[in-house]
Amino acid sequence: MRGYFLFAAKRFLQLAVVVFAGTSAAFLVAHFSPISPVETIIGRVSGQSSFSPTAVESLRATLTELFGYDQPLWQQYLNFWGRFIQGDLGPSLIAFPTPAMELVMRALPWTVGLLTVAIVISWILGNLLGGLAGYFQDNRILKSIGVVAIGIQPIPYYIIAFLLVILFGYVWPVMPISGGFAMSVRPAWSVDFVLSVLWHSLLPAFSLVVAGIGTWFFGMRALVSNIVTEDYVTYADLAGVDRRTVVGGYVMRNALVPQLTALAMALGGIFSGTIITEQVFNYPGLGSLLIRAVNGGDSGLVLAVSCVAVIAVASAIFIIDLLHPLLDPRVRVG
Amino acid sequence: MLTTFRDLFRYNIEFRIGIVLVAIVTVFAGLSWFSPYPPEMIYVVVPDQPPSAEYWFGTNSRGQDLFWNLTFAFRNTLGFGLLVALLSRIISITVGMTAGYLGGWTDRALMFVNDIFVALPIFPILILFYFVLRNDLDMVTLAIIMACLGWPFDARLIRSVALGLRHREFTRQAIFAGMNPARIMFQEHLPFVMPIVFSTAMANMIWSIGFEVTLGVLGFTNLNIPTIGTTLYWANNHSALVVGTWWWIIIPVVLIVIAFLGLFLLAVSMNEHIDPRSRLRRMGTGV
Amino acid sequence: MSDPILTVEGLKAYYRVGQFGKNLDIRAVDDVTMQIERGEIYGIAGESSSGKTSLIKVLAAAIRPPLQVIDGSVRYDFGGRIIDPTKASKAELAEIRWKHLSYIMQGSMSVLNPVRRIEQTFRDFAQRPLGLSGAAFRARVEEHLDHLKLPTSVLRSYPHELSGGMRQRVTIGLATVCRPEFMIADEPTTALDVVVQKEVLSLLRTVQQEMGASIIFVTHDMSVHANMTDRIGIVYAGRLVEEGPTRTLFTQPKHPYTAHLVASLPMIGDTRPRPALEGRPPSLADPPKGCRFHPRCPMATEICSREVPPLESVGDRHRSACWHADEVRPLVEPAFDKAAGGVRA
């Protein structure tokens, strides 16, 4: 048990460093943005009605103080951390004066939900099929699945999502291709709403599953075709151990350990894929928000989304890492 | 190394298909040097013409001959992928071999940094860079940024190979013979690491080109440079599918999938070649 | 002595490798005939890649492509239940495995599933053949381990938590818990250090004597053979070249290859240089004509390179396949009595 705590502590340290480094980098990059949020707001406000030059000047002063741009960089950096810990990253521009963090928190559950479902499905399905394909190497069906997967694997997220939109939006319009839920239902914990959310998440989730499943399939197939030559599998076969036990408890079970590590390592990339998928399906998650923020020149919001993304991905990796020793008894020692 | 390629070409169907596909797009990209139109010119031909004998891939709504325009797009995109692969190879070989060969604290420190890079969601960071640099984000800058983000997976793989080499007899002999670590690493060990460097380079190209396309589609790169991403951006911008200029989308998509498939097959077949156990199985059952 | 538990006749098993359009036969087991009696420990000796591993693969019904049985028969007699593992169906084989026929494998480090506790492995292997469930099964396993003087706490351990010797003892426990009549032990002690090796061997011997089981004991280590086996079969290049009681083989070898193997044993107080065998074992894909040992044999004559010597009786339960069996003399003083006291000091 002590070993496990040590292991968890080490992983937690890593999580902290990742979050610190990631958010600091995001702060710095955003800081050097040539787009000044102050000028953007002024431009937007003064575009709507005429202002006297003195009014513009005082608005500029107020906004500069509000964003803290009058202070030196290190002071701004410290302020950033002080506010960040309280979950406050200033107002957004695209929905001024709604706080950027509020927009992010509204979008976060959509992305987390979509990603969790898509990752769980593609990981389980990909590993199962890949494992079977590695064990039953002469099975025709599994071989042809492999050929199909080779064809799909290199297609980027964007194109898969786009093809689905064309297919189900124009050619055979039976599925919703835009939004997180139907316009006609009110967001509340009702059956209608939940069903609508699920119905709308189907295509985006499907495109993520299609794009992601190949990685797991090939990884697992390669792992399994190596594991079947391990002594403990040969020995279990010689002992007449039940076939299902050998496939499940010996072959697949041992291949799952590296596949779990691979999942942790792939999360960042999968998150990147979601951004584009959300954009294509106009899904109300973090990705769509990020793109809106960039197009609206909203540096505070871009910063907020980036920071939350770094934290979310790092935390997910942390959780998966904590599962690792449960799957592999050898990790528990140290 | 050359015999490896020859063997692969002779006996591995995936490798052969991969080579052919990559060759197709490479030759296509090479045609850009013979283009009658400079890539940035618009409205040089009649817009919105479907593929015909005169315009093989049709023309787009911006009055460009899609065939010649795409040759530039592929030259830029492939060149970009190659540059990222090259730069990130330098980082991953250096980090991976140093960590694997020296071991101990160096190894632990490097792998700690490595894991941090693995955990970073790259896309928001790229978007952040675009946000700051805007149209200054040209292909080379983007390639350098991507290379700095795209090495950790491969560094880890290379490290595991280098770790195995450290305990081999010839390494000990080299140490006793007084070779310095850098020479041992690059003269004695590099040849063993090369196959994995090549296979990960292919995977890395798929990865970086995928990001380039994605960024381009969203309009988050310099839109005046023709790449696959910006081609698709302009097609979307002119609602190509709604207007009915389908060739503007379908043709680049098919070509990029050919490129991806080719690179992917090369990576897969080389991987298989590297792992002797799967090769043995192939010999045994693949009669 | 006419109640064999295992009868092998004219067995041929080749690796059929088709690579890059060429077909290649590797004759790993070529025309082997032998019998193993109830309750005896039969040793198989030979250099690495002499075909001994392929032979026991066939005997253990672990034939996987590219290994194929080309000809001959294998016949087990488990108390009247006759079975040929080269022809039996998977279901039939599943019924005899572990219940009648068990196996101790080379490389104790990797034969136990690293992610399963020992108890779970025992369940996987022995629950079905024993036909016990739950507490009764556990009680039986604990009783068995107790008997082998193994702590029952190993059941709760994972393989990586045990030492190499302990792991091999657990494997022996695993192979004997169903009290099979026949066991195949493939280099069971090769990876262990000498002290542990001795303990593991004596454990195996004790269990074997109690159960009255037969064992095929494969190792290249002649000193282990001297200590463990009742009879030995010498395998060279896929063929059985000599077979006889262990003592006879050590004192009066009737094949020049056996004479060399015996002579290669180190003995205390003996400082004479040993006659080394020239050359390498032949390729099994293209073995020499005639006697396969003739290119390396100091006694070879013209007939040896032309005709295959038959395996013929040269004494009591003693067979040899050599044209010059009568002329073979031990290369060193017969020192078996010393050997029996512990060749390996």
TrEMBL record, chain A:
InterPro entries: MetI-like, MetI-like_sf. It is found in: Cell membrane. The chain crosses the membrane at residues 12-32, 110-136, 157-177, 197-218, 260-281, 301-323. One of its GO terms (cellular component) is plasma membrane. It is a multi-pass membrane protein. Keywords: Membrane, Transmembrane, Transmembrane helix, Transport. Residues 108-320 form the ABC transmembrane type-1 domain. GO terms for biological process: transmembrane transport. Pfam families: BPD_transp_1. Belongs to the binding-protein-dependent transport system permease family. PANTHER family: OLIGOPEPTIDE TRANSPORT SYSTEM PERMEASE PROTEIN. This is Peptide/nickel transport system permease protein.
TrEMBL record, chain B:
It holds the Pfam family BPD_transp_1. The keyword Iron-sulfur does not apply. Residues 78-267 form the ABC transmembrane type-1 domain. Coiled coil: none annotated. The keyword Disulfide bond does not apply. Keywords: Membrane, Transmembrane, Transmembrane helix, Transport. It is found in: Cell membrane. The chain crosses the membrane at residues 15-34, 78-102, 109-133, 189-210, 246-268. It is a multi-pass membrane protein. GO terms for cellular component: plasma membrane. Belongs to the binding-protein-dependent transport system permease family. This is Peptide/nickel transport system permease protein. It comes from Wenxinia saemankumensis. The lineage of its organism: Bacteria, Pseudomonadati, Pseudomonadota, Alphaproteobacteria, Rhodobacterales.
From TrEMBL, chain C:
It is a peripheral membrane protein. It comes from the Bacteria. GO terms for biological process: peptide transport. Keywords: ATP-binding, Nucleotide-binding, Transport. One of its GO terms (molecular function) is ATP binding. It is found in: Cell inner membrane. PROSITE patterns: ABC_TRANSPORTER_1, ABC_TRANSPORTER_2. Pfam families: ABC_tran, oligo_HPY. GO terms for cellular component: plasma membrane. Transmembrane segments: none annotated. Its main location: membrane. Residues 6-262 form the ABC transporter domain. PANTHER family: OLIGOPEPTIDE ABC TRANSPORTER, ATP-BINDING PROTEIN, OLIGOPEPTIDE/DIPEPTIDE ABC TRANSPORTER, ATPASE SUBUNIT. NCBIfam families: oligo_HPY (TIGR01727). This is Peptide/nickel transport system ATP-binding protein. It comes from Wenxinia saemankumensis.
